[in-house]
């Protein structure tokens, strides 16, 4: 799917994501993860700001998304929670920041969308301070065979429908990127992963 079609697809879903933000969907997992966010925070593929209810008032958020409608909803959410946030309309895969720009890099439900998720994680590695944290909540292929089979079978349809892949092995992608996992929790037959990681100082 070309970039413009993908952006339009997410634009159309912005109202639905905003409703989910208000209902605090996946709130328990988000709260658990986001409470580890400190200092200058980069949140990539922020969507409608689903994590915003869970940040402390002291963090400074830089939020990125390539969908103008998602970003518009995220700005409203930041105002509602009185967060210090600035917003960048950009494609995460072609974004640049100086090395070690952020204390925390947050990505929730975004590795399913990138063309090259391993490269995106290596960008997080570069942008995160050496003593910082990379916080992930991602969905992917199950470790339960019949479910994994179904996810693979439905992947082309799901990608066309919502713009996310269902068949990615998230823990493999994380391993390939070289970032260092400190703690990981797995839910729903391994389709959801919460990961607390730190940058790998042996990588650039
Ligand atoms: C599945 S939604 C997740 C939104 C939010 N992070 C959450 O947890 O609810 C994926 C988001 O990533 C954005 N996105 C996907 N690929 C992107 C890219 N290459 N650059 C920037 N944003 C992207 C979409 O516009 C959408 O807002």
Overview of the molecule:
The protein is of the alpha/beta class and 204 residues long. It has a single domain, classed as Rossmann fold (3-Layer(aba) Sandwich), CATH 3.40.50. Helices cover 39% and strands 25% of the residues. The protein has six helices and seven strands. It has a seven-stranded mixed beta sheet with strand order 3-2-1-4-5-7-6, sandwiched between helices. α3 links the parallel β2 and β3. The structure holds S-adenosylmethionine.
Summed up, the domain count is 1
Q: Name every ligand kind in the structure.
A: S-adenosylmethionine
* Strands side by side in the biggest sheet: 3-2-1-4-5-7-6
- Per CATH, the class reads Alpha Beta
Low-confidence runs (pLDDT<50, min 5 residues)? none
CATH superfamily: Vaccinia Virus protein VP39
CATH architectural type:
3-Layer(aba) Sandwich
**Distance between the first and last residues' Cα:** 31 Å
């Amino acid at each position: 799917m070309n970039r413009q079609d993908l952006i339009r697809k997410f634009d159309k879903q912005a109202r639905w994501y905003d409703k989910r933000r208000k209902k605090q969907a996946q709130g328990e997992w988000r709260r658990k993860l986001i409470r580890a966010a400190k200092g200058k925070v980069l949140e990539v593929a922020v969507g409608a700001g689903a994590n915003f209810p869970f940040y402390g008032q002291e963090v400074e958020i830089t939020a990125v998304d390539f969908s103008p409608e998602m970003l518009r909803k995220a700005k409203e959410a930041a105002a509602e929670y009185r967060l210090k946030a600035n917003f960048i309309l950009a494609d995460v895969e072609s974004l640049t920041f100086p090395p070690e720009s952020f204390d925390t890099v947050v990505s929730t439900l975004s590795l399913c969308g990138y063309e090259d998720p391993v490269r995106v994680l290596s960008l997080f590695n570069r942008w995160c301070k050496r003593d910082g944290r990379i916080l992930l909540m991602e969905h992917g292929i199950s470790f339960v065979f019949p479910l994994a089979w179904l996810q693979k079978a439905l992947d082309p349809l799901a990608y066309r429908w919502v713009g996310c892949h269902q068949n990615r092995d998230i823990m493999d992608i994380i391993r390939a990127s070289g970032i260092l996992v400190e703690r990981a929790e797995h839910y729903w037959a391994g389709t959801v992963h919460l990961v607390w990681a730190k940058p790998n100082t042996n990588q650039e």
